[in-house]
Amino acid sequence: MAIPVGGGPLVGRDAELSILGAMVTAVSTGRGGTAWIEGEPGIGKSALLHQMLAQAQTTGCRVLQAVGDELDQRLPLRALVDALGTEADAEVGSLLRSGGAGGPTGSGDPVPAAVERLLTLIDGYCAQTPLVLAFDDLQWADEASLLIWQRLGRAVDQIPLLLISAYRPVPASPTILRLRQTAEKRGATVVSLGPLEAAAVTGLVTRLAGAEPGPGLRRIAQQAGGNPLYARELVDTLVREHRITVGAGIAEIVDDDRAPVSLAGAIADRLHFLSPETNDALRMAALLGADFSVLDLATVTDTPATRLLPVLDEAIAAGVLAEEGNRLRFRHGLIRQALHDATPASTRAAMHRQAARALAEAGVPVDRIAAHLLVTPEALDGWVLDWLAEHASDLAYRAPEVAADLLRAGADRTSGDSRQAAILRGLSTALFLLSRLDEAEQTIRRSLARARGGPLIADLAWDLSQVLTQGSRHAEALAVLDETLSRTDLPTLRQVRLRARRSRVLTDLGRYDEGEREARAALGEGERLDDRVAVGHALHTLYLLADYEPGLELIERGLAVIGDDPELFDTRLALLVNRCVSLDALGRTEAAMASLHEALRLAERFGTRRLTNLYIFAASSQLDHGAWDEAYAGFTSLSGPIREDRMLQVTGGLAIIAAHRDDRAATAEHLRAGAQLGRHTGHLATTASYLNMARAIDAEQRGRPDEAAVVLAHTVDEERAREFYDRYVWLAELVRLALAADDLELARAAVAAAEADAAQEPLPLRVLTARRARATLDGDAAALLAIATDYRARGMPLELGQCTEEAAVLLARSGDVPAARAALTDAVRAYVDLGAAWDIRRADTRLRPYGVRRGPRSIRRRPSTGWDALTPTEERVARMVAQSRSNPDIAAELFLSRRTVQTHVSNILAKLGVASRIEIARMVVDRSVAQPDGARPDDRAASRP
Questions:
Q1: d(Cα 381, Cα 363) in Å, to the nearest integer?
Q2: In CA terms, which of 414, 561, 795, 901 is 20 to 30 Å from 852?
Q3: In terms of Cα–Cα distance, which of 693, 651, 709, 639 is closest to 676?
């Protein structure tokens, strides 16, 4: 932890110390919080921060501090990794230094992986002891660090974490402003440091001068404008120049007409007293950042460390540098800025280049070298271009923003040069990772226009097809692949890989027969060549075209072939997810969730563009299995850019939950958002399934069952059955809607479609759907009640409710009111567990004309507050919190993402009306004592007939 230079008590900040001190006390007892300290340079932000961190250490909290730096502000996570120390460097730093496999289709993206690992590490720290985490000079933080800060800010209400940010509000960064505004809405404390009052300035000058200031010295001190750094520099300058005398307990200035009148002048005066050797070393040190190691300075100055020690000792004694662990730090950013500005721009450029080359020869990480080169793009000469060509891929993965600017400049300077191909490919990778797809496409096309030789052209065509499909431009991707495959200079291996890629694009376009033929051809050739890439991609395509049982065999083959090959990391994740789909469809739910968890674990650990897609898939799986609270938490905890087709899935998922829960305003909002998204065909048509079901519910809520049926009617077309491979989810309901709309032909078509699907592949849920659709059409209440028993055994509450509701209506029509009431009660009980207010209202409305009403005590609805307000998952999470389990540990055991667990803990705190995990633990203990069996009162009530 940094120690404030100058020592002594902090002057004039008693109110601020009291506010922040209370927050430190609170976090030491388990209650987290967020504080923002803002003010101009030199106003005392760092000094206040340091004093709070020193206090936090005395309370037993773990204390960590990151410091932003202007030179490093585009290097992902460097300040936070440094702050968290050796454990973070071993866990995260090595990942960031590892780079990628090259090209947009390379292995993973280490930056999002590093974000996840740092969050997991911090979560683990908080599970052990309260944590105070500070970020000084936050205005220089990189985007990945700000993302972490944002996500940690959402967690402080549930873990013992105090976040303290110190920053300059001018110039205002839009990202920082949004982050601060969001924090304020969530209850953050904002401490705005203004000028010190006159009495406080007098106290500071008294301490520095050794006696109370006289009138002349007071007048000079007023020039500081209440800025403590300026006041300190003014007095220090006067003391060095022997212009202060002390007599009779009064410190007074002599020759006051020569007093410095600016902060810059005071700092320049401090530096003027240093030896030329020390000034030279400090100017180079200023280029290394706010802090640096002696080894770094020795490397860039080509000076033995032993010769630097006297120079550095002088700088420390003069108050220019301060020791901080095994590193040195400029006592204030303004001192470093003065040294930087005192060096002519042309000289600075040469010094940065000198530093870059020395650090490169010393083998330091590529991002630190690139930071120096980015400062002086005009200095991209032969050595720099050689270095860029060699390290373009690694740089793109480690620091994509820096790489995008630096590699673009490098590409412009290597026109017609053999180095340009490698630089352009690195540039396209960086742009792809930044989701700047249009620029990535332009870069790859630029490379293609200059490329010579089949192998490179094939690789670029692969990259371009990936970029185009990422933007849902599958037809254009196919055209690129076809044009490339028509060349005669492609090596056989590249041909086979491109054919495997082409098979997937054909499948996405709905050209299934062509896709299957291409995939089988690529598979055969790939196996002959023993090429994992072709074989893995071909098997994945064939899985998409196969039934579930044989498809599962294809997935296992693909996973065995791919192994741990980093070039096929994303394909492995896709196969794991699809294995989950197949196992779930085959009724092997536990194994399915294990496969999903393996995919999530790998994605979070190694980084991938698929991570958000995996979160979406996990939330969709929870929605399908009736875990709506978990699904909602998963959908709403997403961050970062989301592909349009996946956004369609997210919007649809939120819409269907809102529709079932009778939240008309939210439903309308999500449906409007969905209408603005593109419509997909072929294999991707299923991404709109949730949205279509929500549209059907919305139409029925408006009293238009005919419109509701029309929304889903096209899915019974057998020619489009492959597009809607999950239509078993809604076909039985479509029968009910069609009958309500007096469309007997559509009802029969829906039954025929369900029965055809079950006959083609008799999966458990397809068979149940076919039976239920037939029973609904035939009006067979007994069959529906039997099917409901199967749904109950499978843990599918929505389908259970729908089945028993339909049975209740049929029983009521037949005059069996007691049986109808019992069925209605079962249906509503299932709907209550889901919070499906619309379904309850619909069921009551349908049964009311027959005189069937539920008894006033037949269903106990979950309250909104208190222990009984918790969902079953929230109750499990609460009990695990009481065991001092961290969010990542809970997520691992419950097969959830850490973000979803975080949402659950927030809900638990709100429902229980408590402010910390410690209070949750107390309630769990108290409840265990009061109810040793752990049963919920409403569980026992629900078990009664």
A1: 20
A2: 795
A3: 651
pTM above 0.90, yes or no: no
Tokens representing residue 321 in the block:
């540098």
pLDDT in tens, 36-75: 999 988 888 988 999 999 999 999 999 999 998 887 777 8
In the predicted model, is pLDDT for residue 945 greater than 60? Answer: no
On whether the CB atoms of residues 110 and 397 are closer than 8 A, the answer is yes
Burial 887-922 (b: 16+ CB within 10 A, else e): bbbbbbebbbbbbbbbbbbebbbebbebbbbbbbbe
Q: Residue 40: left (phi > 0), alpha (psi -120 to 50), or beta?
A: beta
CATH number, residue 909: 1.10.10.10
Q: Are 651 and 674 in contact (CB under 8 A)?
A: yes
Look at residues 330, 332, 232, 240 and name the one whose alpha carbon lies nearest to residue 281.
330
Q: pLDDT by residue (tens digit) across 751-789?
A: 999 999 999 889 999 999 999 999 999 999 999 999 999
Whether the per-residue pLDDT at 530 is higher than 60: the answer is yes
The residue behind tokens 């029925």 is 700
Say how far apart CA 380 and CA 272 lie, in whole Å. Answer: 34
Domain containing residue 279: 274-343
Mean pLDDT (whole number) for 132-141: 93
In a domain, 734, yes or no: no
The 3-state DSSP class for residue 244 equals strand
Amino acid of residue 440: A
Percent above pLDDT 90 for the chain: 41
Q: Distance between CA atoms of 760 and 752, rounded to whole angstroms? A: 12
Considering the domain architecture, whether residues 615 and 551 belong to the same structural domain is answered as no
Say if residue 305 is in the same domain as residue 422.
no
> DSSP secondary-structure letter at 166?
E
What is residue 214's DSSP assignment? Answer: -
